[in-house]
Amino acid sequence: VDENIAIADATAESTVKAPGPKFDFIVVGGGTAGSTLATRLSLGLPWASVLLIEAGPSALGEDRINIPGRKGSTLGTVYDWNFTTTTQPGARNRVFAAPRGKVLGGSSALNLMSWDRASAPEYDAWGSLGNAGWSWDSMIATMTKAETFTPSAHYGSQGVGSTGPIKTVINRFIPEQQNSWIPTMNNLGIPLNRESLGGNPLGVMYQPSNIDSTVWNRSYAANGYLAQAGPNLHVLTNTRVAKINLAAKSPSSSRVATGVTLQNGTVISAREEVVLSAGSIQSPGLLELSGIGRQDVLSTAGVSQVIDLPGVGENLQDHIRIQASYELKGNYKSFDMLRYNTTFATEQLNLWRQGQLSMYDYTGSAYTFMNWDQAVGTNASAVLKSLARSVAGTSISVIDQKRLSFLSNPAVPQLEVIFSDGYTGVKGYPLPDTPLYGKNFFTLIAAVMHPLSRGSVHITSSNISTHPTLNPNYLSNEYDVQAAMTAIKYVRRIANTPPMSDLWVTEYEPGLVAVPDAANNDALWRDFVTNTTLSIFHPVGTCAMLPRSQGGVVDAKLTVYGTTNLRVVDASVMPVLISGHIQTAVYGIAERAAEIMIGSATRYGGGKGM
Ligand SMILES: Cc1cc2nc3c(=O)[nH]c(=O)nc-3n(C[C@H](O)[C@H](O)[C@H](O)COP(=O)(O)OP(=O)(O)OC[C@H]3O[C@@H](n4cnc5c(N)ncnc54)[C@H](O)[C@@H]3O)c2cc1C
């Protein structure tokens, strides 16, 4: 790690230590995908100069990023872009937080470190939507390239990598109460799955986190990938790109990306390619600021249109989450102790610093993924599927049709539940001087894997400093509301199933006062859902890899339509949202993009990746 820090600090100075103002490749955004891609390009094309430009700082020594148990503490800080949504009518006009990493490593520095994969048919769907070469087989090859998994008694052998820069491990800190997880789900008929990263995630399981188990540190794009980059990679931090510069031989010919203009007006040129890796919220905005997008959006923002591409910023999809919390019996200790017992917290922090087993090691490791039949039985599942068809059955969108096909494929998960130690709900941990202050909790977080809502993100001004208008349309249709209601009812059922039911005293949230345990209380569940559903922060689809006629922004080689050498490589290219947590797919997309770009960079004769 010391070595990693030294190397990455050297690359993190805010000066271009470069052969000149021209680079062969410019990657915009040093986040999850951008850091991965830039590292692979530097190694695979050793004679090329690669510039990675990141708006945020390098923060390799930052405890709030590195210590797994401090996950979430960076949200709302200087490392977060702090985006918010428009008011969401389906969710009582609430405004949702939309955190995104503004730091080298991007959102991989802020995320909650769940490391898993969707089912094989969900990646195959990307190919069947018109993207040759994209499938489970091609994605698992590149996703595993990103990872070195530490073998565990809790896991088998499928779908994990052994040579990649990101270190993963099933967390060694397993709270006593979490031991109830697998037997409880087994009692609900959900079988143990010890191979859940291998293309079939259905079942109950322990899953890894992106943690380096030699030092018990977060392993992410900045300390994992960039530390291994070649000397031909140049990294500019605290530097924001304002637009991509485009040229053309004639008005009707394809545009050539000639470089970028920074926010301060500096122009940096690219000889070969420019890649946008600014993430699902900001890559579409950079295209729009460069004149690529919908006419109505561009004219409102005062930007002249260069390429008419109506799909830019559309097709926004995200997972929604809903949660319930339970007060543990007095004999259990939870992660909450770190917030109310400062002496204990200091002891635990010292243990972490010494590399000893510590509560600060903790990340979630207990998950379940299921289809609706498994969760609620075939009758209730049929009602949900029929509702989905009534919402989207007549839609001409290939994305809507694909999501309906996921619903009728029993291999595709529709519901995820995570056992999360400590209180991680919405109403807040009990305040000091209230009876429950100092109590310990656990939270069950459910996420709807394929909501039918889609939204958009667009610029409203030609000034890069103006935040975009982000409208995910959460809970904008009855299927999504009913799916979230089904999810939270199922969560209560899990909590009331032994052996988990023996762990707790009361349901703290929502609680039996807010939602009594009665048969006809759907109105109350609906209130709870619309009041407390959150995002689980997986926005995708806003620069979709799709045929142009279907609203696509990039082709199967990730090249922006109407350009010869401008690509988008990040979460925004996923045409349809997959289940689970999406960072492994983002790393896989970047690894695949590197293979494509290295393979086509004939001027440099390709090269050897690491
Ligand atoms: C709070 C949170 C928790 C999450 N938890 C999990 C989890 O547990 N497991 C999981 O699998 N996924 C999780 N995710 C999702 C996952 O982390 C993201 O989907 C993924 O990291 C996105 O990668 P990306 O490369 O698309 O974008 P990012 O990693 O966000 O990278 C974009 C980068 O571009 C930079 N940038 C933007 N605009 C400019 C510009 N104009 N000039 C220069 N630089 C720019 C940004 O600063 C950023 O560094 C979580 C996300 C968040 C926010």
Automatic annotation (TrEMBL):
GO molecular function, one term: oxidoreductase activity, acting on CH-OH group of donors
Keyword Flavoprotein: yes
InterPro entries for the chain: FAD/NAD-bd_sf, GMC_OxRdtase, GMC_OxRdtase_N, GMC_OxRtase_C
Pfam families: GMC_oxred_C, GMC_oxred_N
Cofactor: FAD
Family: Belongs to the GMC oxidoreductase family.
Location of the active site: H538, H581
Residue span, Glucose-methanol-choline oxidoreductase N-terminal domain: 101-124, 279-293
SUPFAM superfamilies from the UniProt entry: FAD-linked reductases, C-terminal domain, FAD/NAD(P)-binding domain
Binding site for FAD: V103, V241
Keyword field: FAD, Flavoprotein, Signal
Keyword hit for Flavoprotein: yes
PANTHER family hit by this protein: DEHYDROGENASE XPTC-RELATED, GLUCOSE-METHANOL-CHOLINE GMC OXIDOREDUCTASE
Protein name: GMC oxidoreductase
UniProt-listed GO biological process terms: secondary metabolite biosynthetic process
